[in-house]
Predict the structure.
Amino acid sequence: MTNVTRNKKCSKNNNMINQQDKKIKIKAPIVDALKNAYENPTYQFHIPGHTKGNGSLPEFKKLIGAKALSIDTTDEFDGLGTLHPATGPIKEAQDLAAQAFGAKKTFFLLNGSTAGNLALAMGLTKKGEKIIVNRNCHRSILTGMIISGAEPIWLIPKRFDEWGIWGNVTPESVEDMLNNNPDAGMVWITNPTYEGVVSDIKSIAEICKKHNVPLIVDEAHACLWNFNNHLPTTALKLGADAVVHSLHKTGGSMSQSSMLHIAENSKLDVDAVEKALKLLHTTSPSLMLLASLDAARANLDSPRGRKQLERAVQNAKYLRKEIDKLEHIHHLQPDFGYKTDITKVFIRDDRLSGKRLESILEIDFNIEVESASDAGLLILSNIGNTRSDMQYLVKCLQKIDNTNYTDICYLEKKKHMPMLTPIIKMTLREAYYSHKEVVEKSHAIGRISAEVIAECPPGIAVLLPGELITEEHLPYLTDYDVIFKSTKKLKKLIT
């Protein structure tokens, strides 16, 4: 196919999509309700006290816009509905989201997927109950278990030592864990990993059903999967009981807005989850955040949104193809029996640490990436990125590849944890609520961590509450991390 023919074809497809957009009325109930409230203003004698921005700092109002402040209201007013229980446009928007993602029930979350993980732990686990969890889970899962008193049984994923990252969870390891812990009440898997490595959730779900335990999947980084055939299949279709999605990460909603989905055939106690969410959520929810979730779902489920997602996939393929031509820079590929989310491109340079590569991109080329560690850095191909964005990135990587940049040894290892099997001396809850003190890193060896110590992103714990601190942890600790104070009783525990 010639370039002229390809361009004509692309132009024709674009015109067809534009025509479809005009014909199709995309339902966005919360967006429509806010629009109606904006177009039919009232005299407000209720919260928020800035009263449509009139009480705001002028500089702030100018920065974010008077219109944004005018629609910053809470539920219960202007026919906007309520969040708990969901009524009006909010309930309608959640129902539409459940339909779009293939769920029985969907809850909107206003504190990220963290709120969903906390609610699942609080609503579905209890004190002393064993929960099988992958070691590279997000800190919010640990926090939920601190609150509920559940005790994690650590499932160790594959290690990609060459890349310095955790890999996939194998079905065989899940089967072994369930056989060795027949009293386990749940399996909780993170999929994909932060770097986009995908586990075989279908097989894991079948194993969980055989053992009659529910499967929860933290799918925070995979909210796009149900809207493009080039991406992996969402756990909601593969047998998981519940899934969280961070729409704000890659789905186009505003920061800290996410969704929690209960699967169609799940036997989970939905009421218990909703009661936990009611405890966790604010009683003054932001309609702007709720509307952004509604808008993100509507966009992803529209011809325009699917076109944007396909562009993101093709941009990622283009980036990977161009990286393959470079001498020193490489990208993580599904070469060893695992799958990846193509839109998450984890790269490394043979000569440079990931932190150094990140600093070069930022300082020399004005490029910001998702995250970096000593091992490499993560680039996201987002629905909002254009082909010209990706072409500029490729040009910069080519220049770096052909330039004799030097590494900087003092850059700290902050982003990724050491890939260690934890040595557990106390339960999460025991350690967290025990007496603590702050100690210098050099004095931490042999002590017990009292808190979840994790930098976000990726939010994976370097140390767990109750974990013995070893010398291998030290390069990953900061000077302000809180370490357990050993009482006489606990000194005996440590030795």
Notes: The first strand starts at residue 103 and ends at 109.
